[in-house]
Each structure stands twice: as C-alpha cells, then as structure tokens.
Amino acid sequence: MDMxxxxxxxxxxxxxxxxxSDIGVKNGKIAxxxxxxxGEKVIDAKGMFVFPGGVDVHTHLDMPFMGTSSSxxxxxxxxxxxxxxxxxxxxxxxxxxxxxxxQTLADWKKKAEGKASIDYGFHIAVTxxxxxxxxxxxxxxEEGVTSFKLFLxxxxxxxxxxxxxxxxxxxxxxxxALVMVHAENxxxxxxxxxxxxxxxxxxxxxxxxxxxxxxxxxxxxxxxxLAEAASAPLYIxxxxxxxxxxxIKQAREKGLPVYAETCPQYLxxxxxxxxxxxxxxxxxxxxxxxxxxxxxxxxxxGIKTGDFQVISTDHCPFFMKGQKDMGKDDWSKIPNGxxxxxxxxxxxxxxxxxxxxxxxxxxxxxxxxNPAKLLGLYPMKGTIAPGSDADLVIxxxxxxxxxxxxxxxxxxxxxxxxxxxxxxxPVKVVVNGELKVDDGKFVGKRGTGKFIxxxxxxx
Amino acid sequence: MDMxxxxxxxxxxxxxxxxxSDIGVKNGKIAxxxxxxxGEKVIDAKGMFVFPGGVDVHTHLDMPFMGTSSSxxxxxxxxxxxxxxxxxxxxxxxxxxxxxxxQTLADWKKKAEGKASIDYGFHIAVTxxxxxxxxxxxxxxEEGVTSFKLFLxxxxxxxxxxxxxxxxxxxxxxxxALVMVHAENxxxxxxxxxxxxxxxxxxxxxxxxxxxxxxxxxxxxxxxxLAEAASAPLYIxxxxxxxxxxxIKQAREKGLPVYAETCPQYLxxxxxxxxxxxxxxxxxxxxxxxxxxxxxxxxxxGIKTGDFQVISTDHCPFFMKGQKDMGKDDWSKIPNGxxxxxxxxxxxxxxxxxxxxxxxxxxxxxxxxNPAKLLGLYPMKGTIAPGSDADLVIxxxxxxxxxxxxxxxxxxxxxxxxxxxxxxxPVKVVVNGELKVDDGKFVGKRGTGKFIxxxxxxx
Amino acid sequence: MDMxxxxxxxxxxxxxxxxxSDIGVKNGKIAxxxxxxxGEKVIDAKGMFVFPGGVDVHTHLDMPFMGTSSSxxxxxxxxxxxxxxxxxxxxxxxxxxxxxxxQTLADWKKKAEGKASIDYGFHIAVTxxxxxxxxxxxxxxEEGVTSFKLFLxxxxxxxxxxxxxxxxxxxxxxxxALVMVHAENxxxxxxxxxxxxxxxxxxxxxxxxxxxxxxxxxxxxxxxxLAEAASAPLYIxxxxxxxxxxxIKQAREKGLPVYAETCPQYLxxxxxxxxxxxxxxxxxxxxxxxxxxxxxxxxxxGIKTGDFQVISTDHCPFFMKGQKDMGKDDWSKIPNGxxxxxxxxxxxxxxxxxxxxxxxxxxxxxxxxNPAKLLGLYPMKGTIAPGSDADLVIxxxxxxxxxxxxxxxxxxxxxxxxxxxxxxxPVKVVVNGELKVDDGKFVGKRGTGKFIxxxxxxx
Amino acid sequence: MDMxxxxxxxxxxxxxxxxxSDIGVKNGKIAxxxxxxxGEKVIDAKGMFVFPGGVDVHTHLDMPFMGTSSSxxxxxxxxxxxxxxxxxxxxxxxxxxxxxxxQTLADWKKKAEGKASIDYGFHIAVTxxxxxxxxxxxxxxEEGVTSFKLFLxxxxxxxxxxxxxxxxxxxxxxxxALVMVHAENxxxxxxxxxxxxxxxxxxxxxxxxxxxxxxxxxxxxxxxxLAEAASAPLYIxxxxxxxxxxxIKQAREKGLPVYAETCPQYLxxxxxxxxxxxxxxxxxxxxxxxxxxxxxxxxxxGIKTGDFQVISTDHCPFFMKGQKDMGKDDWSKIPNGxxxxxxxxxxxxxxxxxxxxxxxxxxxxxxxxNPAKLLGLYPMKGTIAPGSDADLVIxxxxxxxxxxxxxxxxxxxxxxxxxxxxxxxPVKVVVNGELKVDDGKFVGKRGTGKFIxxxxxxx
Lengths: 459, 459, 459, 459
What we know:
4 copies of one chain form a homotetramer. By secondary structure, the first copy, chain A, is an alpha/beta fold. Helix content of chain A is about 30%, strand content about 25%.
C-alpha cells in the first residue's frame, strides 16, 4: 500500500475506458489502481486527465541526410518529446550501403545511449539488400529490432527495387518482423524533378509538384501488392492523401494485414503553405509533401473508420538558417523534413477530441495504445494497467497554449504550427515512475532512457 | 483494503487490455485493481480469464407473439443468461395497438420485477404511431428507456410505414434516443408468403424462400436513408447476410452514425438446416432466416472491420412441442425465433478467439463493452474498472463443453447448436458483487435483478 | 433507283458510324444508302449531319394533373418536337382510379389521333392495382403497349405500395414488358411537405427542400431491389442526382437489367434557380427537383460510362400565368413540370458533342438509338439503315441559335433555357419520308402521326 | 449500279445495327447498301450474317523469342486469320537493344511485304529507351505507326523501368500515339521463378505459380498511375483475371482514358490445363498464364460492362515438338505463347452470341469496330458502310465445326481448343473486295496484303 508515487483524483483514460481512480506506482511500474493508496510522493490530478504516455514510432533524431543531420539529437529530441507528452519512441537506424545491420544498430545505439531521457527502440531502414543482409535480419529480431523500413522513393540513394522489397517482406514474415514502407514512386519523382529544374522551377513550391499524389498512391498499391504476394504484414508510414488512403482501405477490406499511420502535418497543413514568401515554403519541404486542403477531411475520416491506426510525427527537424537554406536556389537540395515530436499530443487532443472528431479513448488509442501494440512495445507501453511501465501524462484539458518555436523545446528555429492555439496540454509527465516534466520545467534526470527490446509482430 | 470479495490471480481482459492483477469488490462495485487486496471472500482465478459480464441487448423474454409467448420468462431467462456469462440484458417491450408507451413499460416491468436475477433495461418497440406517442417518447427517455424499435416487417401487425419511421427518427434525435430497426421489407414478404402457400408450399423450408436476402438488404438501405434524412443515429438489429452488411458498410464509410449487430445463429448456422426432416427445420424459423453458407464469412469479416459493433442473441425461444408445431401444416404459423441467451459467450469465444478470428479484447468489445456503450449502460456495465458494477465472468479457457439443450438452462426443448463442442466456458459468474453461478450450479439469490435507467445515446 | 426523296452529300451519323453517302427514301422508308440515287425530290445536305430522328420516350402531352392540364397537346407538342429534331415519342397514359387499362389507352389514343404530326406510342402508368388490372396488362402488350410506369411518389394520388410494384414487375417479366419508375419516396416527401408548410415555408424554393436527394436515392434502390426480387428488368426515369446514379451503377455492376435516363434539365440547371425572384422559381418546380450544381458533372459521367442509356425530356409544360401561379401562396399547389421537347436535341449536341463530352455517335445513341431499342421502337426508329422509317434530321453544326420561348414552338410562356446560345440546330426534318420542317417553317402535313405498336422488351 | 461484287440477301450486322439489304462493292470498297445493285460477281448470303471483317490488334507473327521464332509467319498467319474471319491485323515489331525504331519498322515490314494476304499495321514495342528513341517516336507516328508497346515483365530482356514508361507515355500524348502495356511485375516474376526452380519445381505447372494474379494486378495499377501522371491514354493488353480488371474498371470510373482487351484463352481455358500429363501443360505456357476458373465469369462481365473494349488473340504459336519442348526440363525455357488467330471469331460468336452473353452487335463491336477505332484503322476497317474497305465475312450461324489443329490453318501442331464444337462459322471471306476464302478453301491471291498507315489516336 505504500507506493513510490500516487497519482490522485485524476480521470484515467485508456483506449477503451474512462473512470476516476488513483494510480499507485512502485519501482517504475504501475502497481495498482485504487482510491486507497498512500505514497511517498503524491501528484494531485484533480480536474486532470491521466493518459498513458504518448508513443511516437516515427522519428529521425541525429540522422545524417542530404549532406547535414537532423537538428534534434537524442538528448534534445527526447526532452522535447517529454514536454509534449510522449514518453517513448522508435527511431529509424539507417543502413549505410555496405554496412551490416549489426553495425547500423550499433551506430544508432551509440547516438542514443546516455543521451535519451525517455525509452527508445529502433527500426532498421534497409537500403542495401543481399543474401547476408537477409540472413542478418533474424539476428536483429532477436535483439529486439522487430521492424524494417524500406524506401520506394529517393532513387539513387535509399530506394530499393521491387525484388528487394519482396525478399524483405518474405523474410520478415518468417521471423515475426513488420515491414514499414515510405511509399512514393522514386522513378517518377526523379524524372519530374529533372524536368522541373530544367525548366528553371527552383522554388520550394515545385517540391510539391515533383511529388504528386499519384506517385504516393501508386507506391502504396505496389507495396500492398508485394506484401500480399509475400503473405506478409505491412505498415505504411506518413500517409498524406486521400488516394493513398483509398488503397489502404481496399486492402483492409480484403482482410489483408495492412496498417497505416498519418501525421499531424497532413491533418493540419495544406499546400498553400508552399507559397509562403521569402523561401518560407521550405519549412514544409518534406516527403511526401503536404497536400491540397480537401485531403484533410479524408484523412480525419480514415482515423474515424480505423484505416489509420497510428498518428506519428516523422519528426525530422532542420534549421531554416544553415540547413533548409542549402536549397535556396534549388528546392531539390532542401533537406526534407519538419519538426513535430513535441506538438503531436496537444494538436491531436485539441483538434481531435475538443473539436468532436474523435472520442478521448480513440485519441489514446491512436497516440499511444495502437503504436505500442503494432510495434511490439505493449504492454510495457501504451496503457494504464497494473504491470505496465509508469509512463503517465497528467493533462490539463483547460490549459490553452499558443504554439511557438520560442516556447517549444525542439532544437530548431521554427514550428509549422507557429501561432496556433491549442486547448489542453500536458502539465506533468512521468517516465518510468519519475516525474520528468512539471509545469513547463524539466525536473527529472537526463539521459536515463533505455533501449527497448521490442516484441515480435503479432498482428 | 478489506474487500467484500477479491478475485485473485486471474488474467483481466477488457476491450483494450489484458493483464494479470487482482480485483477488489466492495458494495457490489469494483473498488480497485491491485495485487494487495484482502477480502472476506476470495475467488482464485488462477489460469482463468476474468471478463466483464456479457451484455445482451436483444432479448425477448415472456413475449406474446403469434398466439403464444416466448418460453423463457424473466426468471428462467436471466438464470440461463448468467450460466452463459451474460450479466445484464435489454429486452423489448412491445407496444400493443392503442396502448400508451407508459402502459407498455409498466406491463413489461411487471414481467421482470422480482423475477429477473440479473439487471435489465427495456427498449420500447413502437407499433402504433401518432402525435401523442411521439410526445410520450420524451417521457420514456427520462425514465431510462433510451431506445425505440421499429419493425419494417410483419405487415398487418407490427410493421410501421416510412412516414412513421421518419417521425420516430426525428423525435429520437431530439431527445437523445437511439432507433433500432428490424429491417425486412414486409410488403414483399407478405406477397411471397401468400404466393408460396397458394402453391401448397407449407414446409418450414419455404419460410426462408419467403424472406429473401433482397428483402433485408432493401429494408436496411431504406432505414439508413430515412435516418440520414432525419440526421438521426440508427441501429440495425440481427443482420443476417452479406448484402445487408454492404449497405451498413457504405453508410459507415459515408460517416453516418449507423450501428449494427449480428447474432450467433447467422454466424454458425446455414440454410441447409431448413431441410432437417420431421419438421426439424422449424427450429430455425426466425426472421430474418438463416442464410446460405457463404454469408458466414462475410459476417465474420464485418466483425473484423468493425462494421458490426455488437453480437446479441435475439433470444426468443419456443418449444418444438406445443409451440413451433402450431405451424405443422403451414410454416407461416410457426412462432418465429430461437434460443441463444446462454450460448452466446461460449460460442463467440470458442469460434472467435480460439479459432483466431478475433483477439480476446475484440471478443470483450463486441459481447460486452460495445453493447453497453451504445445502449447507455456504460460505465455501469461493459468493463472492468474501479467504479463499475462488479459483473464479472471467471472463464476457463480450457474447459470443453458439448452443447445440449439437456444441460443448458434455457426453458425450451432444443438448442440449434446441439452436439457442438466449445472450448472455453464461464465457470463462475458474479453479478453486482454476488457469486451467482459456481461450477454449473446457481448459488446466488434469485430475483435480485434491477431495472436499469439507461443513459441517453451519445454516439 | 428512282427514289421519292434523296438526301445528298450529307454526313450520315448512326450510333456507331459516321460516313458520307446519300440516302434514298421510298414509301416513307429508307431504301438504300449510295451515292448513285436519283429522286423526285432532293435535299442537299452538304456540310450537314444527317441524324436518325430523335426519339423522346418521356413526354406528358395533354395530361390532366394537379387540377389543370399540361399546356401542349398532341397537336402543338408534336410540332414543337419536330422543330427540335424529335420525330417520334412515347407518352404516358395515366390510369384513373377505377379505370381499366383499355379505357386508359382508349382515352389517350383519342387525345392523339388526327392531332399528332409525328408517330407516337404509349406507356400506361398504373395507379390502381388489382387482379383484373394485372391480368389486363397482357392485353395491353398485345396491343403494342409494352411498358408500364409506377409512381413511388405522389402519396395519396399516383403512388403505389411495394406490394403492387412487385406484382407489376413479376407480371411484366412474364409478358415481355418493361416497368418504368418515378423513384422518389412519397412518404418522406409528404411529411416534409406538411412540416415545411406548417412552418410557413410557402415559396417555390421549399419544393426542393421537400424533395431531398435522399428521397430519390432511397426509392431508386428500393425499386431496384424489388425488380431483382422479381427477376424483372427496370427502367428508372428522370434521374436527377449523383446518389441515385450510384444506386443504378451498382445494380448494373451486379449484372442486373437496370436501365436509366436523365433529362436536360438535370444536366443544365441547378437549384440556385429556385431563388429567382417574383415567383420565378416556379418555372423549375418539377419532381424530382433540379439539384445542387455538383450533380451535373456526375450525371455527365453517367452518360459517359453508359449507366444512363437515354436522354429524355419529361416534357410537361404549364404556363406561368394561369397555371404555375395556382401555387403563388403555396408551392405544393404549383403544377409540377417544365417544357423541353423542342430543346433536347440542340442542347445535347451543343453541350455534349461541341463541348467534347461525348462523340457524335454517342449523341445519336442516347437521343435516338437507345430509346428506340429499349422501348420497342427499333428498327423502325432509331437508326439510318435500309428498311427503317425515313425519320431524318438534317442538322447544321454551325448554326447558332439563342433559345427563347418566343421563338420556340412549345405552347408555354417560358423556357428554362431562355437566352442560352446553342451551336448546331436541325434545319430540315423528315418524318416518314415527308419534309415536315424546313428552315424554321412547318411545311408538312399536320396530324399524320400514327400510333406505334411497340415490340416487346428484349433487354 | 454496276458493281464489281454484290453480296445479296444477307443480314448485315454492324456495332449498332442489324438489317437486311445488299452490299455493292466497287474498287475494293463498299460503294453502297441497297437491294437494287447488280454486279459482275454475286455472292448469295441468304440465311447468312454479313459481318465487317475481324480486326486482330495483337499478333506475333515471325517473332524471334526465347531462342526461336513464332511458327506462323505473315504468309501462313494471315491465311489462317482469313479462314477465321479476320481480315486485318496489327502486329508487334520488337525493337532490338541498340536498334532505332526505323530499323525496327523496316525489319518488320520486310517480314510482311509480299507475304501477307490481309492488310496489316505495326505497333512498335520499345525496349531500349533514350533521348533519340523518344524523338524518333514522332517520325514513326508520321509513318503510320501510332501505338507503342511497353513490357513491365521479362526482366533482363524486354522490361523497361517506370521512368522509361513515364517518358514514353508523355511523348505519346504529345504526338497522338497510344501506349500499350504488357502488365506483369517482372521483378516479382523473376524472383519467384528463381525460387521455384531452386526448389526443383520444373514442370509447366509452375509457370502459373511464378506468374501470380497479384503480379498482373500490381502492374496494371502501376501502368494506370503512370499514365494518369502523364495525362496519357493507355491500353492494357491481354488482361487475364478479375483483379486486373478491377483496376481497369476503377480507372475508367474515374474518367481516365484507359482501354483494355482480353483474349479467348482467358475466357475459355483455366489453370487446370497446366496439369495435362506428358508435358501437355506446355501448350498453355503464356504470359500472363491462364487463371483459376472463377476469373472467366468476371471477364465476361467486363465485356458486358464495356470495361473491355476489344477481344484480341495474342496469337504467338510454337510447335510442341521442337519448340515448346525446349523447356522439357525447365518450364522457364518454354517459349511463351499459344495460337488463336483463326479461332477468335468462331469462339466469340459461339460462346458469346449463341450462349446469350452478348448481342450480335456487341460481338461485332469488340471483334471488329472497337479494335479498328482504338488503333486508328477506322473507318477503313471495322464497319460496313459506304466508303469503307470491302472486308466482309459471310457467316453461317448454323454451321457446326469441331475445332482441331488438323483442320485449322495455323502453322502449329496443336490448338488449345482441340475438340471443342462451335456453332456458327465464316463461310466466305472477302478482303478488299476479293473473295479469299470460299467454303473451306483459300481461293484468293496470296501476298496482296498492304501495310496500313494508321491514324493517330483519338480517344
């Protein structure tokens, strides 16, 4: 009955339930749920929601890309995450051509160890496929890396061909791993890029033109077809548009084990942003690009129907000054990506729950429970139940915050949501039983995040 | 810490979570979930699942119909329910032509009070619509009757026309009620019935021919259209076939608040049964009828995709001897209905979870959480969480039972599942904190079930 | 080689072919196609298209309705038709309650005989169904009335119930007739009408509100379901909107023999028209009403995909002064309908062919060949081939005409297309080998049109 | 009036009309249609249908492939075609790597000139794409080669990548050409082939396993996506299965200019054939392979709904002895293809028209009018109208023939339809006004076929 920490008087929310009770925490884990606990430390959550910590399964911290590196490393990035109510993440370790997967994993572990303030796992992005790599995938799964990513875009660097995709899918099915795909047709993008640049179309706006909806739709359908041929499950990352969603929906209607995520940038931003003056459009240069406004409704509907199971961030920040401006005269040189690790939970709550687009349980489901379940983090992460890690967000549903890069903790000089007002915000964040964030201050230990050996995919 | 009852060592399952802990029960409610409780009474659930009690929102107990009455009353029916792991139900009070709704409710309360051994609520089936009835619907909602049923079938008795349906839908939206429809085209069935009988086709087999799939599909689509016109939510009861499901799916894809249930009889039986010799086909005479085998897969898929949210029973038993045999020479005189209140949970677990068609959480969702949420019983019923009623099923996943009417507790001389072997069975059932069923015996008090004032529909 | 009439130098167009040659006419029929003919009379069609005469299978001439009669009788209406390039029509004979079908046919024949200047047939609209009417349908088919119409709208006057619809469908299948339906849900319209009027909403605008898209969609789907149940072919008249079209498309995808028409008013007008000041909205009061603009694209697409086979007019004119104004204070008293018999061909050519929405062969197919084939007029009507009736339109593709009721020949004081400029117009019209219209003048004999015994439906 | 040839008393059938008249032929062309012609030669077609000559737009005559050549050259192949009622064809000239398109065209013209007995055109299959080839496409169109084919299959030999496909599509749109695709995913087939062979699966049966439905479906969807990106029309050749058809249907529903053909082998044969003993399965080794039986119904429906516009043959014969047996020990070495140029018309009439699956006009449309229109041969070919080439088939609807390679004129030692009885057969075939085939004998001049400069694609 003597707990290390008791969260009192809050309204506990899981993917299916909402109720009032107290949470007892012992040894970093949830010991029980009952109004009778006493504890050394007590957090009074009266008037607050208590959510399971957010799980972000799509981040790029300290990633070398297009001649630079994403500007948040595991130190800054995980603290920003915690401020935003995210208490665990899965990042992408990118295989360099010629490297083994073990080498890749080792490289990325080094980036994170001692730096991360929340728990983390890794997917490996396979870019160079051969017999030995195929074999090595099994070892990775044993080490807790139970998902592999493939790029259908970025011709000439990260892109792999259909034969490689099929082999990785077959092998993943065998060993209990999940394949994730960046689905855009790299061939088409490559030609369109050359055509646009040869016509002198060098402004950020043309990034969107070079990455049309049809390139994404095609790649989504192809990836699904190859997964079906391999009888393997598939996870589509960062779906940006209605046409891609339709392919996903059709696959799911057929009963195929196809899963998908979308990201806040596709729900809240539209392609008018590319017209921001003074190179401002560069903030939104990412792949796939943000789309015409009508897609937003379709994506919200995809969340409602369950065709999207996960909201992730694809957090991949670059400074406008010194990084994005590498593409000042040629949009194809702008590092692709935008920040979002800190704003996901507040945005989804404010625009999702407050605006009546989803129930509060659905919000927990897509931001925490589902990503944990699909990527092998459950039941350690993703819910509030005895035995789970004590990753908890005390969330004030009345707190209004005006988003600005100046107040956020991401290491980057802009946010795409600058000036947007959200209602509802994390006020205290507990990670593995330790209070890390308290009313706008980071009060916990730094660098205590652990590598998570993830479970095999269960579907 | 001193509980009235503690369920120890079980694996607790809700619509989203599965974990091991103990449940403390006090004053008929769940007090907490923690391994530290002590209690006056203890149930050891080692090796067992602990489910929230089943919720059956479609039963017909003690219902006058076709010149007789369904053979289970609230005494026998609720005990059978408890044996089968169902701990609350919502029954249909049927308005007699000329009666007020208050009269109808009073009549049905009288049938249940002091007899029911589990909690119960009522929907009112409106069969005689006029201005005063429309007005009275508001009073009913205040008394906790927050759903109304309409029949598009049974021309000349229960059927109401499209104008009445539209009015009831509009009124329900206004007052926070949910409209449920029996969706079959009564005009078409009436003609087909006359045509078949005039051709001398009097065997039970022809019941199915008189109730074709198209009659159901049409009525489903019409009900949805009228609900859309009225901007009202709609709940389709006992969906039997793929074509009807397709209409439901389309509506949901459009974002309409359309909900639906199917029943075990449509998942497990097919129309070959009507050929059982010696009038055996009469056991399966119900409306809609059981369908061609290929529909079963479609219905299972509808559960998987979430197009069906609820599994209910449409429990409406009649003895073969003395009741069904009223239609010996004319199938149209066979009382429509079959028993199922006791077998729902075992069948869905055995054929659903054990056979890999759904996760154990999904099973809880469709048999307990969703019916509770959609029909205004949540959070009293439908989950295991502090504050909820202590309706709990201790379920042995290894127990094999051969279903037979002789061992079941339903007051009827057959079960459509005679001889079927199920794996997994409720072994102890707790209702409002009291152990009612213990290893095949009814050990609790009888007649303690209470009328539930249900919440308004929230969508 | 000596022809009564030779059409020289024109470009002949049929539903599949376009070529230059001459047409020889003898005894009112096409004798041959060859550049070598000589003839008593010669029409030089250089630079002109020669089309088979238009076939309009949906007209209401001299029809008693809502306390008045449509303002074109068979004399004025058929002359207007000829001016517009339509050389045969099928009109609706409406059964009065209590009348036999023979009586109905006799009544309508009397209206037409000696008055019509082009050939005509009749559908019978059955409004009062009983055993003797069902039987009499067979006689009608033998007399060349091979289609029957049913109203799902107009509750209390023309509407029949689902039982009647099903019986008529079954009987029609038996005797080789085609059932046509006016598909709007009369129950729903009736209530909405009462509600709107009780709220003081009496302007023409509210006619549209009382006839929502969903009422049409529902009725289309219901009619299709009943036809499927009866294994009978079905023809949906005057489809006005995308949602109704979707139902038709689905049925056709399933392989059901479902056919449909739309009308120019639904392709060219939208519901903003109801806001015309000074009771101007009354011009567009028809059922179904004209719809929101986005439906127009959908309907054009329906033509392209073949889901609509026919463009008809639903020509049913009423004078604004003295007829439409009966509903000055109550839109529900405005006689429903609008004129169009004269403008169909020019509008479809100008907006369809000239604007690139369809080929010239498709234009002939939907305005002439298909209506002739589906309604049993082919091969007498609907094509240019040896043996067919010499109903020919010499059409100047360069002639521009500004449509105005002042220049049109319809007996009514407005056209919904007032001021619209069309490119392409009939300049000479030949009916049964006789030149009827010549450069804006009616030069032929009047009243020579014959009743056409139509063939059975062949599908 | 004095004709070179008159076809008397026949029933003339076009894509839209059926009527009795006589056809006058002068100078190899149709002069007129009239019962009054006299002529030097007269063919009495009493009791016969007169069809426009069949147009086969997918043949491989004298084609070098897989180390051998297809066994019919332009001499034998065109005579076989004529016997079967086909009077013009478009063959594929295959670019050899390094060759210019002009060279390719010249090579293929040489194969045909002086040998072909019916008129012929060429598509060019582009296999080696670079800037100069892209440019040269314009020259080809001017020379009457207005369609280009691309292979998404045959990795390592004929296959081109998505970038090349997109460029060819863009260029084709510019110059008025039509792109045709062999849609199967070559990457997937290549891996599956290697896997199967490495497992010792060397029998013909495994050819089908290496070419799964999903490989075709994927490639169809990808080709459509690339065509949409390029705003170019697209023609899918030899569609074999329902899943591929669905992709085509969806594109057409969207309004994309996507066209498709299927072939008799996919309508009449199923994959049980691969089990024929003694290497018999090799007869059916073609790409895509023949499919599971349920696809046949879907393909017939695709004809009915208009999603297929064309029936072609993909005639590509190889002798079982000396050619197919190159793959005796390894199915991947069996030359792909089967004969069919002679049997298309009889099969489609007998199984299509006689069995009630299509009207006789539809039969003419898909076997003659549509291929002529889509591939730029109309109005020279594809119809019976004054001005068109006098390519005519006098067809006896009552003649029964048992198909056997012994009686057919294809230069190959089997037919996949051996022993099948067809009802209806061409009895006299006229090519450019000359009687070529008369009651089973070739009576015309040989080698008189001309190269056809085809029109640009018009859509």
